[in-house]
Amino acid sequence: MDPxxxxxxxxxxxxxxxxxxxxxxxxxxxxxxxPRAFFEKAVAFSREFADKFxxxxxxxxxxxxxxxxxxxxxxxxxxALRYQHERGRELVTQIExxxxxxxxxxxxxxxxxxxxxxxxxxxxxxxxxxxxxxxxPVCDISALENPK
Length: 148
Ligand SMILES: [Fe+2]
Prior knowledge:
Helix content: over 70%
Strand content: under 5%
Bound molecules: fe (ii) ion
Number of strands: 0
Structural class: mainly alpha
Distance between the termini: 26 Å
Order of helices and strands: HHHHH
Number of domains: 1
Shape: elongated
Number of helices: 5
């Protein structure tokens, strides 16, 4: 399997993660409460797999080699992908911040019983930028390899 094929397979895993995250957002918008553990796992997946494993290879290996190979022809696309990666990291940090604070500081039930504590262990997501849904969530390496 060549490196591009490996990265494309990793995109499939990241796509599934983003699809699941979108499903959780729809549930939240409909008043349902996805389990806190789902968001904890989503944050861990994003940090450990998407960033440390996948984006690291793209940002520190592929983008550098591709920029040199294409001599500036794909710099704008690479900058856009770097921006998407950074924006994704910011959003994950926001989700993580919500996990850390909402149950204790914005209780929806008295925190003096196991049932109340269970209700307070939740995630509230506020969508501040609806245009983020229009962004391409994962990069298309083939477009970089064959710029128009
Ligand atoms: Fe990627």
